[in-house]
Design brief:
The chain is an all-alpha fold. It is built from five helices and no strands. It has one domain.
Length: 84
């Protein structure tokens, strides 16, 4: 478990996501997602997590594994064609 990684998540925890991602950036991401969804049958979902929960940091979860957990929690791949 990296001390630097823990500090990064503790520092980010109180910062609102809107400070890290201005509304103009979020609007552009939304526009890109909508555009991609018109070109493919895939469904896209952006999940922004301010920081990884402490329990997950303690078990040294990777970013990719945390993303898979969140995709499961939010049912990202539970689409008609199972291609979220």
């Amino acid at each position: 478990m990296s001390v630097g990684r823990i500090l990064k998540h503790w520092v980010m925890s109180p910062i609102p996501v809107t400070m890290a991602f201005p509304q103009s950036s979020l609007d552009e991401v939304s526009r890109c997602i909508e555009e991609c969804e018109t070109r493919t049958s895939a469904e896209f979902r952006l999940i922004i997590e301010r920081s990884i929960p402490s329990k997950d940091l303690r078990r040294n979860i990777t970013d990719a594994d945390r993303a898979k957990e969140l995709f499961g929690q939010y049912g990202v791949w539970d689409t008609e064609e199972n291609n979220g």
